[in-house]
Amino acid sequence: MDTTGTGTQADADALLTEIETLGTRLGAARAEIGTKIIGQQQVVDLTLAAMLSGGHALLMGLPGLGKTLLVETLSTVMGLNGNRIQFTPDLMPADILGSEVLETASDGSRAFRYIEGPIFAQLLMADEINRASPRTQSALLQAMQEREVTVAGQTRKLPAPFHVLATQNPIEQEGTYPLPEAQLDRFLVKIDVAYPDRATEREIILATTGAAQSAVKPVFDAEALIAAQGVVRRMPVGDGVVDKILDLVRACRPGESDAPDVVRKHVAWGPGPRAAQALMLLARAQALLDGRLAPGVDDVARLAAPVLSHRMALSFAARAEGIVLEDVIAEVVGQVTAIDKAA
Which residues form the AAA+ ATPase domain (predicted)? Predict the structure, then answer.
């Protein structure tokens, strides 16, 4: 039984056609991105899935791994107006949101005029977001959640669609301000950008150090992306997948009566309902990217770490023992999957 119904048979057939057409277009977009981003297919897919789900993504990786290039490429391929903000300790909220300036007209009259900040973009790259002060980081909170900003007492809508792709260096923490939990939770997914393997790195240096450089072309535009987000939300999801999402998210909360021992022992606090919402949307988007008509339980298991790892924390004792949060999540996924199979 499907949790999300498709209405009449005609509606179901129309949705099927939309999914198949969108899948073909997404295949073209992935191929276009692949001309610039060599390897890193999981990173590309997770970022695309986040955008198809209407959310924001946090890219974690060392310098030089292509995070900035990925965002720039996505901006072109998805046909979005993009801006980049380099976060620094002296960055102020007005540098992001914009501000009002007092102007004098030719007749001598004075009036305030609002000058939009770089946040007024469809795709915003927040580079090294943890280098800005908490006051400046918080300026993104309302924008990421409400898709609007308030300046000088007036609320202004941001362009649609609006996505934040933030980058963060996981190693160099001197002079940085850790993101608060409230802001981390606004990111639909956390994406770890790892080193490429030897064969991929060889392909990268051969492709990027020659005289000719590949250029990408738009495949989507803003309207097409908004329509695709609507298709994702209408995709059918089976009851078994919904139950798996609930089992997994609730199992990661140490206060739950049926939480596994590994969670009770090592986890300080677990994910909230927003994690379940993220898993639901991303599972649909991943199925769409893979050319499938509905998500399965394997999608939930595969997306568990990117969705949950920034929405839960280890206890002090677990960190002292060298416990890795991703290992805890993997163990929980294994136990929930085993229960699911046994049932």
Answer: 53-197
